[in-house]
Design a protein that fits this description.
The complex is a heterodimer of chains A (137) and B (483).
Chain A: E1 3-6, E2 12-18, H1 21-36, E3 49-56, H2 60-78, E4 80-90, E5 94-103, E6 113-115, E7 122-123, E8 129-136
Antiparallel strand pairs in A: 1-2, 2-8, 3-5, 4-5, 6-8, 7-8
Chain B: E1 10-13, E2 16-19, E3 31-34, H1 37-43, H2 48-55, E4 65-75, E5 77-86, E6 91-92, E7 104-113, H3 114-117, H4 121-131, H5 146-155, H6 158-162, H7 190-196, E8 209-218, H8 221-227, E9 233-240, H9 243-260, E10 276-277, H10 281-316, E11 324-330, E12 332-340, E13 345-353, E14 356-357, E15 376-379, E16 387-392, H11 395-399, E17 403-404, H12 414-420, H13 423-432, E18 436-439, H14 442-447, H15 456-466, E19 469-482
Helix pairs in contact in B: 4-10, 5-10, 7-9, 9-10
Classes of the chains: A alpha+beta (137), B alpha+beta (483).
């Protein structure tokens, strides 16, 4: 499982998994992009925009939520879905990421915010890292 | 700590229930639920009451944390939640306002009756869909420059008057006259402004809409007359907020507060409740940014009204007359207000997340024709049911910090609604009932299907019976435009 949708009455929740923290970030981004426009990244063959972001946070959970929030903001401003990410620096508390995006016309879902509610990066029984992420739609 | 069950809840009156402070050690005040006994059983099913208990732990919270009868589970605060904290040193929590700052509703009244528009509904709904940009990621008809953006953030709906999009007379029919004076554009990030440059005059997606309805029933003739409503009259409702700009303001400041609250020794059961003292630098900055986003939202709904008027004129010409603003009200906002807490009046910071202000008669901000009636409260239902106009009542000041419900309240998740609703069929069924739907996608129709919502009649009856607002009129939909 990379990620799965879990029921949430008002919003949309993802349960995301990764063998490493970096993979968890990548999978979370894939999940978010598929909420924004289902399957869009599967067919992307060119990139129209490139952005570099740097995020620092007190914990890896906050880092993940803040990373996704930053990408979401850029997605809205640049009208690009960032299907590919390359981390030039990655630690538990700081990331520097190059984002490669492709222009799109409109979303399937408009994500208002990515919440800290119930987000907690932890090891699961399989030894992988996982967390819930609740998106405000 | 386990889930709240009925054994943990005490009945105070027929419509007011309480989870006492003893339920959990970290509660600072009790949690109160405004609901009928029948609906209480339903509310207990999700985790909204546990979220309400979490709200009672906010520093400086006064009297009680409350939920309205349309409550449902959210994140951090439940949707339908009200919390008042002591001014100026109590907490301010962006999660208690929500990501869509000043999401709200306005109602425009027309001189036309149902029979006047019956043959024009299809062109009207198409024209509204054309004139009012909706849908995900779509920009509006105008693009602001940086200096214009700062004006919009500082002056709200006034900006529309200055630019000729609205009449000055209209401002008094908007909550806070469409402008919160504490707004400071400098507290709004460049990213937030970038998200807002091209979104003025757009409704967005999700549960936001423009709806043409008719007045199906009048419950209070005096109030209806004062509000300019009569049976069979055509009205237009708008539901939207501060769009991406407001979402970014919330994101920016929740992020700041998650870190900053450690400096104030604040620990909370949920990070999404992140808060700081209102009087702190971070607290003041958020409030100024929130006020700016609220002003953007009022300007947005005002611009949408201009677009609706253009569509109206295109379809009906001169015989359509003018669309008059009945009222515009926020349901995701924090306001500094005076309320009776213990012995006397106290200034408090009232957080309303999915709750509407419902001040009773005598509130000086109201236009003179509403002064003896109470503040109009607009309660949208769903696209296939009905909506209500109510009037705020004095009892809301005693019970709910001058607040009441904001809608029907969701009962199905968006994914569940999509799975169980055949959207093309629903659109056809609604059409057969005389309701036109113009939407960007069938997905949007399915997510907002009537089955996804609680019974708005029950919610409104509870509010009416509890005495915090009274029913004035029921509206039935004829055309719904959404993203």
């Amino acid at each position: 499982m990379i990620y799965e949708f879990v029921p949430h009455i008002a919003d949309l929740a993802l349960k995301v998994e990764g063998t490493t923290l970096k993979e968890l970030f990548v999978n979370s981004l894939k999940g978010m992009n598929n909420i924004l426009k289902d399957g869009f990244c599967d067919s992307v063959q060119r990139f129209d925009s490139q952005m570099t972001i740097e995020i620092a946070s007190e914990s890896r959970t906050e880092l993940l939520i803040n990373f996704l929030s930053e990408v979401l903001a850029l997605t809205n401003v640049q009208k690009s879905i960032y299907c590919r990410v390359y981390f030039s620096y990655f630690s538990d508390k700081r990331v520097v990421a190059q984002l490669f995006g492709t222009w799109f016309c409109c979303f399937d879902e408009d994500i208002k915010g990515i919440t800290y509610h119930e987000a907690h990066v932890r090891k699961n029984k399989k030894g992988n890292l996982e967390t819930y992420i609740i998106f405000d739609l | 700590m386990g889930k709240v069950t009925k054994e943990h809840i005490n009945k105070l009156t027929d419509y007011l229930w309480e989870i006492p402070k003893t339920f959990r050690e970290d509660m600072r005040v009790p949690a109160r639920i405004l609901v009928s006994e029948k609906n209480l059983d339903h509310i207990i099913e999700d985790r909204s009451l546990n979220q309400l208990v979490n709200v009672t732990t906010l520093p400086g919270i006064r009297k009680a944390a409350l939920v309205m009868p349309d409550v449902h589970e959210g994140y951090g605060f439940p949707i339908g939640g009200v919390a008042a904290t002591a001014y100026p040193h109590g907490a301010i929590s962006p999660g208690g306002i929500g990501y869509d700052i000043n999401c709200g509703v306005r109602l425009l009244t027309s001189k036309l009756n149902k029979e006047d528009v019956e043959d024009h509904l299809e062109p009207l709904s198409k024209e509204l869909y054309t004139q009012v940009p909706s849908g995900m990621g779509k920009g509006g008809q105008i693009r602001l420059f940086a200096a214009q953006m700062d004006k919009v953030l500082s002056t709200g709906a006034e900006w529309c008057v200055q630019q000729g999009y609205a009449a000055e007379e209209e401002l008094k029919y908007i909550e806070s006259h469409g402008k919160l004076k504490w707004a400071d554009p400098k507290c709004v990030s460049q990213m937030a402004k970038n998200r807002g440059f091209d979104q003025l005059g757009t409704i967005g997606s999700g549960n936001h809409f423009v709806e043409v309805s008719f007045v199906d029933e009048i419950y209070d003739r005096e109030a209806a007359n004062a509000f300019g409503l009569h049976k069979n009259q055509i009205v237009v409702m708008v539901h939207t907020g501060s769009r991406g700009l407001g979402h970014q303001v919330a994101t920016d400041h929740i992020r700041i507060m998650v870190t900053a609250m450690r400096n104030y020794d604040i620990t909370l059961p949920d990070r999404e409740l992140a808060c700081v003292p209102f009087s702190s630098e971070e607290g003041k900055n958020y409030f100024k940014a929130m006020c700016a986003a609220a002003n953007y939202a009022w300007c947005n709904r005002q611009m949408i009204s201009w677009e609706i008027r253009n569509a109206w004129e295109t379809v009906f010409g001169e015989k359509g007359g003018q669309l008059k603003l009945m009222y515009d009200i926020a349901h995701n906002i924090a306001k500094i207000e005076a309320h009776t807490v213990k012995a006397g009046q106290e200034k408090v910071i009232v957080h309303r997340k999915g709750a509407t202000r419902s001040f009773g008669p005598g509130f000086k901000e109201l236009p003179k024709e509403y002064l003896n009636i109470g503040q109009p409260v607009i309660i949208p239902g769903s696209m296939g049911t009905c909506s209500y106009v109510m009037a705020g009542a004095a009892k809301s000041h005693d019970l709910t910090f001058g607040s009441c419900c904001h809608g029907a309240g969701r009962q199905l998740s968006r994914r569940a609604a999509k799975k169980s609703v055949n959207a093309p069929l629903l659109k056809q069924q609604l059409r057969e009932r005389g309701i036109f739907i113009e939407a960007g996608s069938f997905r949007g129709i399915a997510e907002e299907a009537p089955i996804a919502y609680k019974d708005v009649n029950r919610v409104v009856d509870t509010v009416h019976s509890s005495g915090i607002a009274k029913k004035v009129a029921q509206l039935k939909p004829l055309a719904v435009i959404k993203g």
